[in-house]
Amino acid sequence: xxxxxxxxxxxxxxxxxxxxxxxxxxxxxxxxxxxxxxxxxxxxxxxxxxxxxxxxxxxxxxxxxxxxxxxxxxxxxxxxxxxxxxxxxxxxxxxxxxxxxxxxxxxxxxxxxxxxxxxxxxxxxxxxxxxxxxxxx
Length: 137
Fold this sequence. Notes:
Blueprint: H1 17-23, E1 36-38, E2 46-48, E3 62-67, E4 74-79, E5 82-89, H2 92-99, E6 103-107, E7 124-132, E8 135-136
Parallel strand pairs: 2-6
Antiparallel strand pairs: 1-6, 3-4, 4-5, 5-7, 7-8
């Protein structure tokens, strides 16, 4: 017997890793691209980048979320020890998830790892730049 989730309509979602694997891609069997994933609450944000290290900072060090209003194309995350610049399109739900500490990961698009996005309304990240005290990472 399955139970319906009474809070499902209030959750911010960007899909799940399981959904990504089961939907499959149409570009050589690659999984579809997903810019981010959101859950109720997380302690860390995983920052996956095509070029550069993956980071997993704790939300407790997130000092500010700056963004370009309702445009959803630019986000700057200020942590106590680094800044993360995110560029893309349709990032409004990502902003909401970050503000609620509900985003589990963000990732920029890699054509070698993901099928090309087909829906222009889906969230898409084409730039993630991490800047630490020593400079860009």
